[in-house]
Specification:
Its EC number is 6.3.5.3. The chain is α+β, with helices and mostly antiparallel strands. The chain has helices at 16-27, 52-63; strands at 2-9, 39-45, 69-75. The protein has one domain (2-75): Phosphoribosylformylglycinamidine synthase subunit PurS (Mth169, Chain: A, 2-Layer Sandwich), CATH 3.30.1280.
């Protein structure tokens, strides 16, 4: 089983890397990009029978800083 965790900064948290990307896109001639939020994707290969709640616990304890980040879990 594979789980994909997407971690993003929460709305209202400054994203200097996203702003640098937005600026670089403009410098490369890509107009019309008004904002960029960057995040990370973590793919986990899980043993059969691993409860989905375990992935949520992994996110809360290690994979995401829940003070400033939100996360989404997709299990395939």
């Amino acid at each position: 089983m594979r789980a994909r965790v997407t971690v993003m900064l929460k709305d209202g948290v400054l994203d200097p890397q996203g702003e640098a990307i937005r600026h670089a896109l403009g410098a490369l001639g890509f107009e019309g990009v008004e904002g960029v939020r960057q995040g990370k994707v973590i793919e986990l290969d899980l043993a059969d029978g691993t409860p989905e709640g375990a992935v949520d616990a992994m996110c809360r304890r290690l994979l995401a800083n829940t003070v400033i980040e939100s996360y989404r879990i997709e299990v395939a």
